[in-house]
Amino acid sequence: MPEPVKDREAMIASMTPELRPGRFVFCALNDLPLSNAMRDGAICLFREAEGVSILLPVDLAEAEGLPVEMPMCQITLQVFSSLAGVGLTAGVSAALGTANIPCNMIAAALHDHVFVPEDRATEALAVLLRLSASA
After folding, report:
1. What are the distances in angstroms from CA 17 to CA 20, 35, 53, 67, 82?
2. What is the average pLDDT score of the chain?
3. CA–CA separation, 87 and 99 (whole Å)
4. CB of 124 within 8 A of CB of 114?
5. Which of 58, 101, 109, 128 could tie 96 with a disulfide, CB 3.0–4.6 Å?
6. Do 53 and 28 meet the contact criterion of CB atoms below 8 Å apart?
7. Same domain for 78 and 15?
8. Does the predicted TM-score (pTM) go above 0.90?
9. Using CA atoms, how far apart are residues 8 and 19, in angstroms rounded to an integer?
10. pLDDT at residue 36 above 80?
């Protein structure tokens, strides 16, 4: 495994954004127990004070009877970013914000992932490719 990248400019220059297949939805569950299907199919699950936020494939959310209000696509930043790195999330969200594209960022142990509305995914990818090329 390569060394994690920590420098802001280096992270942005080498982020190599990639649009991943699939459509996803963020759902909030208050007192609902998590079914095995939801737990096993979840991309991400986060316990908040008010309940559980869960990121699911759209088809699974629909099968579980959950609302699908804003289908999103995933763009994975291929750079192996350090958890101690500063500025990647800010740079990405600022570039997308300037283009008026909403985004939800998830930082995992090895990569950062950007979730954008499905109808803006191609445009968001283009914005991030330009950002990377300009760094």
Report:
1. 9, 32, 25, 29, 16
2. 92
3. 18
4. yes
5. 101
6. yes
7. yes
8. yes
9. 22
10. no
CB atoms within 10 A of CB 100: 8
* Cβ atoms of 77 and 20 closer than 8 Å: no
The span from the CA of 82 to the CA of 85, in Å, is 5
Both 65 and 78 in one domain: the answer is no
Which helix or strand (DSSP H or E) is residue 46 part of? strand 44-48
Rg (CA), the chain: 16
Show the domain range for 81. 1-22+72-135
- Per the structure, the count of domains in the chain is 2
Give the C-alpha distances (Å, rounded to integers) separating 2 from 79, 110, 127, 132.
10, 10, 26, 19
CA torsion angle 67 22 117 4 (round to 10): 120
Asked whether residue 37 carries a pLDDT value surpassing 90, the answer given is no
Cβ(128)–Cβ(95) under 8 Å? Answer: yes
Sequence letter at residue 10: A
CATH code at 8?
3.30.2130.10
